[in-house]
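Notes, p. 3: input format for complexes.
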Amino acid sequence: MSQALVSQFDVGLFDLDGVCYLGAEAVPFAPEAISEAVTMGLKQAYVTNNASRSPAVVAAQLESLGIPAPADSVVNSAQVGSQMLAEHVASGSKILVLGAQALRDEVTARGLVVVDSADDNPAAVIQGFYPDANWTDLSEAALAIRAGALYVCTNLDATIPRERGLMVGNGSLARAIANSTGVEPLSAGKPEPEIFQIAAKLLNANRPFAIGDNLDTDIQGAVSANVPVLHVLTGLASARDICVAPIHQRPTYLADDLRCLLEPYPDTVVDGETIRVGNASARWTGEDFEVNGEQLTSSPVTLGLNSYRALAQAAWDAADSGVDSETLASALPNLTVSRDHGE
Ligand SMILES: [Mg+2]
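Output follows (343 residues plus magnesium ion):
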C-alpha cells in the first residue's frame, strides 16, 4: 500500500493538548501535517473535554499556531452534552443548567428551554464546569434529579489544571450530586464514547478516525466508540506505556508524530511467533523481547518506528496469551522512538 494513512478517512477527530499544541507552542510537525491532510481532503475536528473556553477562542488559538481551524471545527463537551440532551428529551423540554453562559447557549441552540429551579419540573439537568457553583445550585440539581430528571455532565474530570495547580474539576462537583441522590450521571466527555460518536455525527462523517496522546481518555474513548485511533508520542503516553496498555486502551495506529498522517501505514504481519512490520521484527521469547533479532536490554533503548510498532504488537500478543503483566513490564525498558534510527 502506498497511500497516505489519512486517505482512508474523511474526518479526523484531533485531541488538542499533546497533539496540536503543548502549552503555548504548536507540537512539532502538527501545523504542516494537519494543513497538508486538509489539502488532501480530510475534514478536521478538534475534540476537547474542556468546555470552559468557547470553540471560537480555541479555533483562534489553533489558527495563531498555523493549524487550520474554521470556527465550527472545534467540538467541546458542552456541545456534545447539549446534543446528548436533545437526543434524550423532547424538543422544547425544560433543562436545569449548572454551568457557564456558553453551556446555557448550547442548550438553547438545540431547541431546549433553560430553567433555574427544580420547581419548574425540568426533564434533565446538565452540569458543566462552573467556578461559581455553590451549595444552592448543587442542591437545586439534586432536587430535580430526585424528581426524575435525566442527569448529564459535560465531563467527569476529577481535576482541572489551573496556574496554581490541580483544582476541583467538574467530575468532583458531580460526585456531590451523585452521592446525595444515588444517581450516576451520563458523561459527554472522554473516555465515554459519545463525544466521538456525536462529533462524528455533527460533521457527517462516514469514515472518522481519532488522533490522541492520552490512553485513558483519547484512546479508551475511541476504542469504546469503535472509531480507529492513531496515537502520537508528542504528549502524555510513552512508547513503553503503549506496549503495556490493556486491550481497551490500545491504539489502532502507532506514530511518532503527525507526519505519519501523510505516510502509508505498514501492515503488521504475524509470522509464527514473530511480528513483522516493514523490515522490522519483534518477538516474545517466553523470557524477554527480541527486536530485529537482538535481545532488548534493560537500559533505555532507542527504536525505529516500525521496530516500535512490531514490539508493541508482540507485547500485546504476549499479554493476550496469558503472560502476566508484571513479567512483561519488567522485560520492557524505557523506549525512545526515532525515525532516524532505521527500521
Ligand atoms: Mg491530549
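The longest strand covers residues 43-48.
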